[in-house]
């Protein structure tokens, strides 16, 4: 779809929306490029009803109201937007006064959430370029913005957004698109470009580095040269992100339906090494075709496929895959050092988790640990324990994980096939299969030898059996 842009259509937005809250753009401002309704493909039918209602209600209350961000970007690209964000000159309190179903959230960025049934429309007041020392803005010594609640004009808001294609504003006034930063051209050329100086913008908020990779993967865009160069140079800043925000971003990176490409780009740009340093180290030792790299890529491919089919994906399985490489190394080490299987498992899980800067919350961490703990049981087991494993509530996830390890070349084909058949076999067939167990399966767990020496003790933190 060719997008025609009228450079001559620069008009002062103040003329467009006479409003008491409006701040005049700086004198050297180049003004927006206006793409008229007839010249773009975003129609009101693309906009979810709650977002449309918010836009109209703000307009009726004499505020400026624009759709911005992923909603505009994705519709123009012919994609289904995940959500619709609204930008306005109404202050958060004014937004709250306009809607009965509205809550103000966020300290770092104060936002209004307008609730419609299960839907939330995020309404952000235009941000301005606050001065350091201002009460509403807080910047640390490394340039990171800790708080930013200075309000400004539409134009100022545009320059403070992250990527040019995320700073396109769809006006509910005349259905045109306002572009201050060259976003339409970048959209057409499929380029992801950070607005302003990338080194400064990544320092202000290192999460933008992860967003760069996420959008490049999702949209199939190339990263503009400096946007990519600064990413590589500043990748270490990822360690400044709080664990909670890092976890949220990881979910968006790996459970957004484009995990395989995201994983590849994260590694290519040197970011994965800061997210999962121990895993990256194992991949480097084993090589790109080694078991860990193959297992992870396959985990991402499977997750993308499940999402495409509308099936569920769980962070527990994802993080189990992300931490498995280092865990397996420690497990092997511990067993070789003569530890019992049970002790080795506890030790390996503790060390693997300690090496992960980002971990899921407890409700996912426990099933993640169970997936790990059950793995040796597929390989070393007695007939009785094989049957017990089938009844374990985490059997299905652990079995899927076994197949993933098989993809990495860690688990013999025969063992995978045996478990695939065993779990669906009728009672009689099951007994026959137990007689024909593959060699590794028939092996007694290393812990057995040790257990005979003393009373059986369950190690702390072992949640299986
Ligand atoms: P999607 O919702 O599809 O993940 P999005 O672009 O809408 O993509 P959101 O996280 O919903 O992303 O944010 C909405 C908009 O807010 C973005 O498009 C961008 O303009 C702005 N934004 C979000 N996070 C940042 C950030 N860290 N720095 C600057 N601007 C941001
Ligand atoms: Mg969005």
Explain this structure to me?
With 465 residues, this protein is an alpha+beta fold. The longest helix has 22 residues, at 315-336. Helix content is 50%, strand content 10%. Mean pLDDT is 87; it is low at 1-28, 448-454 and 458-465. The protein folds into two domains: 13-189, Beta Polymerase, domain 2; 276-442, cca-adding enzyme, domain 2, CATH 1.10.3090. It has helices spanning 13-16, 49-60, 70-76, 92-98, 154-159, 183-189, 198-204, 207-219, 225-233, 243-254, 259-268, 272-275, 277-286, 291-308, 315-336, 341-354, 362-379, 383-390, 395-407, 413-424, 427-435, 439-442, 447-451; strands at residues 33-35, 65-68, 85-88, 102-105, 111-116, 119-125, 137-139, 145-148, 168-171, 177-179, 191-192, 222-223. Strand 7 (137-139) and strand 8 (145-148) form a beta hairpin. It is elongated and about 80 Å long. The strands form three sheets. Strands 1-10-9-2-3-6-5-4 form an eight-stranded mixed beta sheet. It has a two-stranded antiparallel sheet with strand order 7-8. It binds adenosine-5'-triphosphate and magnesium ion. The site of adenosine-5'-triphosphate has 12 residues, from helix 8.
Short description:
About 50% of the residues lie in helices and about 10% in strands.
Shape type:
elongated
Average pLDDT, rounded to a whole number, is 87
Report strand %: 5-15%
What separation lies between the terminal Cα atoms? 59 Å
The kinds of small molecule bound in this structure are: adenosine-5'-triphosphate, magnesium ion
Number of strands: 12
Work out the count of structural domains. 2
CATH class of the largest domain: Alpha Beta
In DSSP terms (H or I, runs of 4 or more residues), the helix count works out at 23
Strand order of the largest sheet: 1-10-9-2-3-6-5-4
Our Rg estimate from Cα atoms comes to 27 Å
CATH homologous superfamily of the largest domain - what is it?
Answer: Beta Polymerase, domain 2
The portion of residues assigned to helices is 40-55%
Structural classification:
alpha+beta
The CATH topology annotation of the largest domain reads as: Beta Polymerase, domain 2
Major sheet: 8 strands, mixed
CATH architecture of the largest domain: 2-Layer Sandwich
Query: Uncertain runs with pLDDT below 50, 5 residues or more?
Result: 1-28, 448-454, 458-465
Function: Adds poly(A) tail to the 3' end of many RNAs, which usually targets these RNAs for decay. Plays a significant role in the global control of gene expression, through influencing the rate of transcript degradation, and in the general RNA quality control.
Protein name: Poly(A) polymerase I
EC number: 2.7.7.19
Region (Disordered): 435-465
């Amino acid at each position: 779809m060719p997008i025609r842009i009228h450079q001559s259509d620069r008009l002062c937005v103040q003329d467009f929306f006479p409003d008491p809250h409006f701040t005049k753009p700086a004198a050297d401002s180049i003004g927006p490029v206006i793409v008229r309704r007839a010249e773009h493909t975003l129609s009101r039918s693309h906009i979810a009803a709650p977002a449309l209602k918010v836009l109209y209600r703000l307009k009726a209350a004499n505020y400026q109201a624009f759709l911005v961000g992923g909603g505009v970007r994705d519709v123009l690209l012919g994609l289904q937007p995940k959500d619709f964000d609204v930008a306005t000159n109404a202050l958060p309190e004014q937004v709250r006064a306009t809607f009965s179903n509205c809550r103000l959230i966020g300290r770092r960025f104060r936002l209004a959430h307008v609730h419609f049934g299960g839907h939330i429309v995020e309404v952000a007041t235009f941000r301005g370029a606050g001065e350091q020392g201002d009460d509403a803005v807080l910047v640390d010594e490394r340039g990171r913005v800790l708080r930013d609640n200075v309000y400004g004009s539409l134009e100022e808001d545009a320059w403070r957004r992250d990527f040019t294609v995320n700073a396109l504003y769809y006006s509910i006034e005349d259905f045109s698109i306002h572009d201050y930063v060259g976003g339409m051209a970048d959209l057409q050329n499929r380029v992801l470009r950070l607005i302003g100086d990338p080194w400064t913008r990544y320092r202000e908020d290192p999460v933008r580095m992860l967003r760069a990779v996420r959008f490049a993967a999702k949209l199939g865009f190339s990263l503009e040269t400096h946007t990519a160069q600064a990413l590589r140079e500043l990748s270490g800043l990822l360690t400044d992100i709080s664990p909670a925000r890092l976890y949220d971003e990881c979910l968006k990176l790996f459970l957004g339906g484009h995990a395989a490409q995201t994983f590849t780009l994260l590694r290519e740009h040197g970011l994965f090494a800061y997210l999962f340093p121990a895993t990256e180290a194992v991949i480097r030792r084993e090589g790109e075709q080694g078991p860990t790299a193959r297992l992870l890529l396959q985990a991402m491919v499977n997750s993308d496929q499940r999402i495409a089919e509308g099936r569920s994906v769980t962070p527990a399985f994802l993080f189990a895959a992300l931490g498995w490489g280092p865990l397996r190394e420690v497990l092997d080490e511990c067993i070789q050092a003569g530890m019992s299987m049970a002790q080795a498992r506890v030790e390996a899980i503790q060390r693997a988790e300690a090496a992960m800067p980002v971990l899921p919350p407890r409700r996912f961490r426990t099933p993640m640990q169970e997936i790990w703990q059950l793995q040796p049981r597929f390989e070393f087991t007695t007939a009785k324990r094989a049957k017990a494993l089938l009844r374990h509530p985490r059997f299905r996830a652990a079995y899927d994980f076994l197949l993933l390890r098989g993809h990495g070349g860690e688990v013999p084909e025969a063992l995978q096939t045996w478990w695939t058949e065993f779990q669906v076999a009728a009672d009689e067939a099951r007994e026959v299969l137990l007689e024909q167990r593959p060699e590794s399966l028939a092996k007694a767990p290393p812990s057995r030898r040790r257990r005979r020496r003393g009373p059986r003790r369950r190690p702390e933190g072992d949640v299986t059996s």
